[in-house]
Amino acid sequence: MPESPIRKLVPLANQAKARGIKVYHLNIGQPDLPTPEVGIKAARGFERRVFEYSPSEGILSFREKLVTYYRKFDIRVDTDDIIVTTGGSEAVSFSFMACLDPGDEIIIPEPAYANYMAFAISSGAVIRTIPSSIDDGFALPSVERFKTLISPRTKAVMICNPNNPTGYLYSQKEMNQLRDIVKEHDLFLFSDEVYREFCYTGAPYISAFHLEGIEDHVVLVDSVSKRYSECGIRIGALITKNRQVRDNVMKWCQARLSPPLIGQFVAEASLDTPKEYMLSVYNEYLERRNFLVDRINRIDGCYSPIPMGAFYTLAKLPVDDADAFCAWCLRDFSHEGQTLMMAPASGFYTSPGYGTNEVRLAYVLNKEELAKALTVLEHALEAYPGRTKTPLR
Question: What is the pLDDT of residue 389?
Fold first, then answer.
C-alpha cells in the first residue's frame, strides 16, 4: 500500500509547528472558503431522537434532489442510478471492487490521484499507467499509447476530469477518443468528476455521461467535499446506468451498512446553495489560479502550466529530488518563522523516475497567504543544497 504524497509529511509539519513555525499548507485540497450557510443551518438544525442508520443506497430525498442537480449539467439520470457513498473515495473503491476481479487491469493517465493506486491494491486490481507530460500541459496521451496497454485483462479506463493533481480539463475530442476506446474494447469508463464546478474555460464541460453509445459502460464518481467546502461530512455518490454494476455495488454498500446520516442532510440542504455563492467561489479560485501560476513562473527555474480546472497545479522546481526538498522545507528550513508544505509529485506517478522534480500545489489559501507561501518557496529554493543549476525551461 503506497503512502499518501498529500499526507505522508504531516509528522514533519506537526514538528515544525511545535517549534513555533507557521506552515502554509499547499499540500492538500482542503478549501478555506466557508461552507454554504444552508449547509451550516442544516447541521445546526438537525434534530432526531435517535440517530438511526440511513438506507444503504442513501436517503431517497437526497438522491431525488441530486437528479435535479445533474440536469443543470445535462446529465440525465434517475434516482435509482445514484448510490450515496461515504465520500468520493468510497465511490472509487466500490467501483473497483464491484467491477474488477483480482488481476484485472485499469488504464489511468498519470499523474493521477494517489488514492486510486491504493484502492486498486485493496481490490486486487492492477493499475497500468500512461504518463502525460508537463510540456503539453498534461494533455491526454494518444489513442495509440492507450492501445499498447490493452490486453485480455484490461477491464477499465479511469480519468479525473477536471484533473487532480494537474488541473487539466479534457476536451470534447479527447473525451470522444476515450469513448471510442471504451466501446471498441468493451471496457468500463470510471470518471471522477468532483471538480466539475471549477472549469476555467469557455468550452462546455464534457461529462462521461455526455458520451453517446457507452451509457452502460460509465461509472461516475462524485462528491460534495470540494464543491461546498464540506470535506468533513464525507458524502459522495456513485452514478451508473448499468444495473448489474449497481447490484454489485449495493452488496458492498450493505456490508458497510450506511453512508453518514447527518452528512446527507447537510449535503441535501447544500444543493440549494445560491448561485451567488457558487459564482463567488468560482471567481475566487480563478483569481488564485492566475496569481499562483504567475508567481510560480516568475521564480527562477520554476514552471507551471495554466490549469483549466479544479484548484491544483503541478509545478516543476529546480531541485534534484522533490520528495527530499519538501521534507527539508519542513524539517530544516524556515524564513521569518514560516515554511510551507507541498505534495511531492512522485507519489502521483507509478512509472519510475517521473515527477522527481515536480510538486502539486493546491491554491486553497487566499491570495495574501499564497503570496507569503510563495515568498517562502523562493527563499527555500535559494537556500536548498540540492538545487539544480540548469534552468528547466
Answer: 67
